[in-house]
Amino acid sequence: MSEEIRLLEAEQTAAFDEEYISKEMFVQITDTLDRHLNNPDEGRYLDVGGGNGLYADKLLSRYPNSSVTIVEPEPTLLEKNRPHDNKELREGIFQDVEDLSDLDLIQFNWVLHHFISSDYASTCNLQLNSLKQAYEMLAPGGLIIIFENFYEGLECSDKPGERIYHLTASKLLKPFTSKLGANTAGVGVAFHSELYWREQLMKAGFDQMFSTHCYDFGNLSPLKRKLLRIKEQRVGMLVGIKS
């Protein structure tokens, strides 16, 4: 990888030691796999940033003859995984994975916004190149499933995520943004709108995609929303299919 990659400290990743995929979301996922994969029960799945493995365990319970590889840079999260014969744990970053191909599914559960580089343009480039890498690693007909927090800006812009990046990536502002509750303070986080992610998937090679609305979120004050130019915050599942 040519881009610098900024990783969170272990104390920052401790907040991610839980499972975010609800029963309803998991039904959406399995419905998608059952509909689009020829044989999901023997699928080869990659969970990027899979952490404690709780989501991978759900996949293996639903599809007992499948295999799941977890790629996770934080060893303290990997250590929490329950052993399973069909689960492989890899400590490291997705961008360094070079030996996996013909996968049926690559999943990013609230991970892409943590692909952070030295500046905003490099961060966006890192995210796009990661989607291109995922496309190359999939078998024909393979799926990419993305769960993300979509930050929709006023005038249909992608500006809220850019503003949040600059606030959270600043080491100078870290004491201030940490007090405001930014777990990624000093490293950065890069959210986007749904339209932005769709455009990046198209650039990566995916010409078939669809999305599902999961839920709305957000507890920012009206003033903060106005300053960040936020119109709407919501969680969605975005699916791309490799032709």
What's the assembly state of these chains?
A: single chain
Helical residue percent band: 25-40%
Q: Which regions are unreliable across 5 or more consecutive residues at pLDDT < 50? A: none
What is the fourth-level CATH superfamily?
Vaccinia Virus protein VP39
Report the β-strand fraction as a percent range: 15-25%
CATH topology: Rossmann fold
Detail the topology: elements first, then pairings.
Elements: H1 10-13, H2 23-36, E1 44-48, H3 54-62, E2 67-72, H4 75-78, E3 87-91, E4 103-109, H5 120-137, E5 138-153, H6 159-169, H7 174-179, H8 194-204, E6 208-216, H9 222-228, E7 230-241
Parallel strand pairs: 1-2, 1-4, 2-3, 4-5
Antiparallel strand pairs: 5-7, 6-7
Give the gist of this structure.
The chain is of the alpha/beta class and 243 residues long. It has helices at 10-13, 23-36, 54-62, 75-78, 120-137, 159-169, 174-179, 194-204, 222-228, and strands at residues 44-48, 67-72, 87-91, 103-109, 138-153, 208-216, 230-241.
Key attributes of the depicted protein:
9 helices, 243 residues, globular, alpha/beta, 7 strands, Rossmann fold, seven-stranded mixed β-sheet
Describe this structure in words.
There is one protein chain. The chain is an alpha/beta fold. It has a single domain, classed as Vaccinia Virus protein VP39 (Rossmann fold). 35% of the residues lie in helices and 25% in strands. The protein is built from nine helices and seven strands; from the N terminus they run ααβαβαββαβαααβαβ. A seven-stranded mixed beta sheet has the order 3-2-1-4-5-7-6, with helices on both faces. β4 (103-109), α5 and β5 (138-153) form a beta-alpha-beta unit. α5 (120-137) packs across α8.
